[in-house]
């Protein structure tokens, strides 16, 4: 028969022993862990979450989503169970601080890295502009489109609310930078319908010391000064004016960088015709382009075709012109996550 009058000392199990036993089997939580939790109390500016710790953890409203949240009920419901990110160690009351925002942040970066690796085109609406470009949201992250990568004649301010096709230029989680290009997306779409050796009609939209920028169906190609004529030209201004209609041949399509290289030099029946008799060049353009394509095909098949014009060293034709497509200035690129 059990003696019901035994004391705690006689049993050998005190309240302190019980507390120590709880500590022994208590989970150890560390910042950076992702744990399941259940919402058991929603407060005006946050919520209490049961994650199995001795004290309920707390999630403040600003950590509930990547996006702006005005009330906890927009994200959480009582008794809902979901994953939480442990943001900080226990405070003096033994309470942990949690975050959903950090989980969304990590998964968003993972998704945009995947989209960049796939060279995907994404669509997003412009929600704001600044002096450097336009702002969009991709997977909840704030993305920046530099002004030089916006292909529209509209003022930037009129783009707010407009959805644009975009390609990724820079995805840098460490520096919190997400940079995109509208121009590259349009060029890629246009490139799918263009071919090297094709003659197209365009309009001169800009003239620089190194060449002329030609609008061909809504995208810009570069007619480098070395590809205007076989004869030496001091400046493209001596041959073209802005808004001139020109006939050019495509000599390179660089989809990865969104660049179209053009030539009138390859269309000259005789060296210097672009300077002496431009109309003749345009009249004979298709005939000269056909010869160019034949030479290109022969070269691809390993057949040496007789040279008909001076070959321009590759280094003379810059793939990118710094002042046209500047590297993004750090202070002008808003971070992808708004603290």
Kindly describe this structure.
This protein has seven helices and 15 strands. The chain folds into three domains: 87 residues, Nucleic acid-binding proteins (OB fold (Dihydrolipoamide Acetyltransferase, E2P), Beta Barrel), CATH 2.40.50.140; 95 residues, Beta Barrel (OB fold (Dihydrolipoamide Acetyltransferase, E2P)), CATH 2.40.50; 115 residues, Beta Barrel (OB fold (Dihydrolipoamide Acetyltransferase, E2P)). The protein has 339 residues and is an alpha+beta fold. The N and C termini lie far apart (67 Å). Strand 11 and strand 12 form a beta hairpin. A five-stranded antiparallel sheet has the order 3-2-1-4-5.
Q: What attributes characterize this protein structure?
A:
339 residues; alpha+beta; OB fold (Dihydrolipoamide Acetyltransferase, E2P); 3 domains; five-stranded antiparallel beta sheet; 7 helices; 15 strands; elongated
Count of domains: 3
User: Major sheet: size, sense and barrel closure?
Assistant: 5 strands, antiparallel
Strand order of the biggest β-sheet: 3-2-1-4-5
Q: Spans with pLDDT under 50 lasting ≥5 residues?
A: 6-11, 307-332
Shape: elongated
């Amino acid at each position: 028969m059990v003696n019901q009058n035994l004391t705690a000392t006689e049993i050998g199990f005190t309240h302190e022993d019980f507390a120590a036993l709880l500590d022994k089997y208590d989970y150890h939580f560390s910042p950076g862990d992702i744990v399941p939790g259940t919402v058991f109390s929603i407060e005006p500016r946050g919520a209490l979450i049961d994650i199995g710790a001795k004290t309920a953890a707390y999630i403040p409203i600003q950590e509930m989503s990547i996006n702006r949240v005005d009330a906890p009920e927009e994200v959480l419901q009582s008794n809902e169970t979901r994953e939480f990110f442990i943001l900080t160690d226990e405070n003096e009351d033994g309470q942990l601080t949690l975050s959903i925002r950090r989980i969304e942040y990590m998964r968003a970066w993972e998704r945009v890295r995947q989209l960049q690796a796939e060279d995907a085109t994404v669509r997003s609406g412009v929600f704001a502009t600044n002096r450097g470009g336009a702002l969009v949201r991709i997977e909840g992250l704030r993305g920046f489109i530099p002004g030089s990568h916006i292909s529209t004649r509209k003022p930037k301010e009129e783009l707010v609310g407009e959805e644009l096709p975009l390609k990724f230029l820079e995805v840098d989680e460490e520096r919190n930078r997400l940079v995109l290009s509208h121009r590259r997306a349009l060029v890629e779409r246009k490139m799918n319908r263009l071919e090297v050796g094709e003659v197209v009609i365009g309009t001169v939209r800009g003239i620089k010391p190194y060449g002329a920028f030609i609008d061909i169906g809504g995208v810009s190609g570069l007619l480098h000064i070395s590809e205007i004529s076989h004869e030496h030209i001091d400046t493209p201004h001596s041959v073209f004016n802005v808004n001139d209609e020109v006939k050019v041949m495509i000599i390179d399509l660089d989809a990865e960088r969104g660049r179209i290289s053009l030539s009138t030099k390859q269309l000259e029946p005789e060296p210097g015709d672009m300077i002496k008799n431009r109309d003749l060049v345009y009249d004979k353009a298709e005939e000269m382009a056909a010869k160019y394509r034949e030479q290109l095909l022969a070269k691809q098949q390993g057949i040496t075709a007789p040279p008909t014009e001076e070959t321009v060293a590759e280094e003379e034709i810059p793939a990118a012109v710094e002042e046209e497509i500047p590297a993004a200035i750090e202070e002008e690129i808003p971070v992808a996550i708004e603290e």
